[in-house]
Amino acid sequence: MRISSRRKAIAFFLTFGVCLAAVAFAVGSGWIILNWREGIKVFLGIIFFGAITTGLVLNTIFLVREIRRNEQHDSFINAVTHELKTPIASIRLYLETLQRRDVAEAQRREFYQLMLVDTERLMATVEQVLKAGALAQKKAKSQRIPIDFDAVVRECVELARVRHHLGAENIDYQNQSPAAQTAQVLADPEDLHTAVTNLLDNAVKYSPDGIRIAVELDAPDDAHVVLRVRDRGVGIAQNELKRIFKRFYRVRQRGRARVKGTGLGLFIVRAIARNHGGRVFAESEGAGKGTTVTLELPRPSPRELPPEPRLESAKPTESSHPKRTA
After folding, report:
1. Whether the Cβ atoms of residue 231 and residue 188 lie closer than 8 Å to each other
2. Phi–psi pair at 317, nearest 5 degrees
3. 281 vs 46, 211, 247, CA distance in Å?
4. Which residue in 59, 128, 160, 226 has the fewest CB atoms around it within 10 Å?
5. What is the pTM of this model?
6. Which residues, including other chains, have CB under 8 Å from residue 180's CB and lie 6 or more apart?
7. pLDDT tens digit string along 54-69?
């Protein structure tokens, strides 16, 4: 209901702005035609007319953007509230049960495990919001070191399988460049883990009818390392392929419940990619045909890598050559 009212407001302001611009154009054109012989008045009229039209157009664009931004903010607040309220309510229920009833030891341990899972979900939501805020403020670059991208991806894939209770057949990982040096990047370890984890979580969330995710790492040339995460989920319309990397934006699905999340995952991935001199983009053939998200990072040049340690030859010492005594 709220979304439809906002769309009506956008349509109203857009129509109102277009009508004002048309009226201004008609009045200005008529005034210029009536006074075309008086040069200075015509010149000033053209300037005045152009300023009014430009102001109306800019004002309409600003209003529409503000309405959309407020809509995204409301959606983000609702999503974060849900992501925080649900695990808190679950933890409270388990604690009340443990407080009021005598629970068997096995069930007590199960409750503890479920509460730990809910706590991890809370921490993940808070950390994601804090990470998005830090990246949006464009803080100073973090310390970057040479990292084996293949090892990072393997670790994130295993964590995704454990977190979402998946088997090896649900997430298939292939390294097209088995040599460790070809998959090496110069990056912040925490940021790189965050980016890969968000890509995998996003693919899992948008695969409601069965999780089949293909993860591929490749080094197509001497300058780039490419990570592709391909799912067979809901897919994305062509006009939304670039919008999904905006903050708070979430893919609209007809006839489906809204996917849980804050709408910050892919925004964080894009910010991390840009901070490391890379890029991220999505490809999809349309709704219901899956999505491929590609993360491309630059490979470090030889001068950016630390020098390999040199093995010094052992020098003879007095202990190794004892003196002979007569």
Report:
1. no
2. -120, 170
3. 44, 21, 15
4. 59
5. 0.65
6. 148, 150
7. 777 777 777 777 777 7
